[in-house]
Amino acid sequence: MSTRTFVVLFFSAMALWVIWLLFATGLSYRVYLHDGAPDKLVMLAVAALGGLMAARYKVLRRIRTRFLVFCGVFFYLIATLWNAPEVWVRMRASEIVHSEAAFTIGHPGPPYARYKHCEAGLRFYDEFLKRSIELCTRDALVPPGARSVQLEKRVSSRGAIFTHYRFMSATGYPQGWWPVVRPSR
Fold first, then answer.
1. Could you give the CA distance from residue 108 to residue 105 in angstroms, rounded to a whole number?
2. Where are the chain's structural domains?
3. DSSP string, the chain
4. Mean pLDDT, 10 residues at a time, the chain of 185 residues
């Protein structure tokens, strides 16, 4: 293999890896896993096993070199696999389910960037996931006296993707459906 071919393949693989990281990380604002799922522990175990397998080669004679190889492979696999359960839920979620829950509005809302938060957070307890959820919303969308929110989500055996929500007014009439989207920056 020529040097030029190797460089092209290396940078193509790195570009695909960065695209994967951006795609998988971008799902975290609306994909939620079941409470108590051991997914992160499994990812740590897989990364540790991959690091140990990479560090066991006889070519690596020094302990320091083996340790550096273990750390490099471990952190590479952690970065690659950390959001894999969310991607799995996104790919496998097919059944559309509607539910209703009592809610509260919190200020500020959940973070969507390192130092930025949503204007308001729609907080509720989801019975299917058995955990508290907080979605981004705006104060202007909440009708006065609203007591519950209807949720539309796609579910799989591992978690759910929240797609739409709408508030129920104090008189019991539903408002329009609002998509669960990342807030504009």
1. 9
2. 3-90, 94-179
3. --HHHHHHHHHHHHHHHHHHHHHHHHGGGTEEEPTT-THHHHHHHHHHHHHHHHHT-TT--SHHHHHHHHHHHHHHHHHHHTTHHHHHHHHH--EEEEEEEEEEEESS--BSSSS-B-SEEEEEEETTTTEEEEEEE-GGGS-TT--EEEEEEEE-SSEEEEEEEEEEPTTS-B---EE--PPP-
4. 87 92 78 80 91 81 86 91 86 89 85 77 88 85 84 89 86 80 60
> Global pTM?
0.74
As a whole number of Å, the end-to-end CA separation of the chain is: 45
| CB-based contacts of 89, cutoff 8 Å, min separation 6 | 31, 33, 156, 158, 159, 160, 161
Among the listed residues 169, 177, 151, 115, the one whose alpha carbon sits nearest the alpha carbon of residue 30 = 151
Residues 153, 160 contacting (CB under 8 angstroms): yes
- Residues 6 or more apart whose CB falls under 8 angstroms from that of 139 comprise 105, 119, 120
**pLDDT score for 182:** 64
Q: 63: closest CA among 77, 71, 78?
A: 71
What is the number of alpha carbons within 13 Å of residue 32 lying toward its C-beta?
21
